[in-house]
Design a protein that fits this description.
By secondary structure, this protein is mostly helical. It has one domain. Helix content is 78%, strand content 0%. α4 runs antiparallel to α5. The longest helix has 28 residues.
Length: 134
């Protein structure tokens, strides 16, 4: 649970600050940001996924992990932390030096992180349906 608290709150802080930087770039009319639609879109996706997945990590750490057996908690926490970090970071990295009209190669990290996160969510969902004590 501590891993997801740390990852969740740190990610929330980092991606909120990045969101502020993106808004500042937009407000200051920075040509390097505004002139490239794909860079803007990828940065927006990174920010949105970063904030959203940080909240998901916090919720899983507080509410999801306690529902799992002791031996399932660590792999689920690690998969959630990996997905929380990998997905938005892949969007952000794919905006750097991308070829014309296509995201950078780092975009291929997104599905890997998504599968890790979906696996963690599936483990929690199965656990919730199996428990009958509440």
């Amino acid at each position: 649970m501590m891993l997801l608290r740390r990852v969740g709150w740190t990610s929330l802080l980092a991606w909120a600050c990045i969101g502020l930087a993106l808004e500042s770039a937009h407000g200051l009319k920075l040509a390097s940001y505004l002139d490239d639609a794909l860079t803007r879109e990828l940065c927006t996706l990174a920010h949105a996924h970063g904030v959203g997945l940080a909240l998901v990590a916090i919720v899983i750490g507080e509410l999801g992990l306690p529902r799992l057996s002791e031996d399932a908690r660590r792999p689920v926490a690690r998969a959630t932390a990996f997905g929380t970090i990998a997905i938005p970071l892949a969007f952000a990295l794919s905006a750097i030096g991308h070829p014309e009209g296509d995201p950078g190669i780092a975009i291929w990290i997104v599905p890997v992180g998504a599968f890790a996160l979906i696996g963690a969510l599936a483990a929690i969902a199965v656990s919730v349906w199996r428990r009958r004590d509440e």
